[in-house]
What we know:
elongated
Amino acid sequence: MSLSRRERRALRAIERALDAEDPELARLMRTARATPSGEVPRIWWRLFWSTLALLVLGLLLRSATLLLAACLLIGALPLLVLVARSVAGWWRYGPRDDRTEKGA
C-alpha cells in the first residue's frame, strides 16, 4: 500500500511530535524497525550466489578446497544469514542498550 505525499507528510509530523513528546518510545520504535523486511532476502541471495560461484569455480578448477568451502557454506547458510542480519542491524543502529536509568 502506497501512501500519498500528504499522508507521508502527516505521518512524519506525527513521528516528530512523538519524538518530542516521548523520546524513549520513539527510540524503541526506531529500534523495532532495525531490520527491514527486505534485508534478509538480500543477505540470503548474496550468500547464495557467493556459494554458487564458489561451487562452479571449484568444479571448473577441480579444486577440492573450493568445493569443500562451498559445501560448508551451503550447510551454514541459515546461520550465516542470521548472523549477517544481526550484524547489519547493529552496524546501522548501534548496540541495543536495554538498561534504563531509573530515577536519574
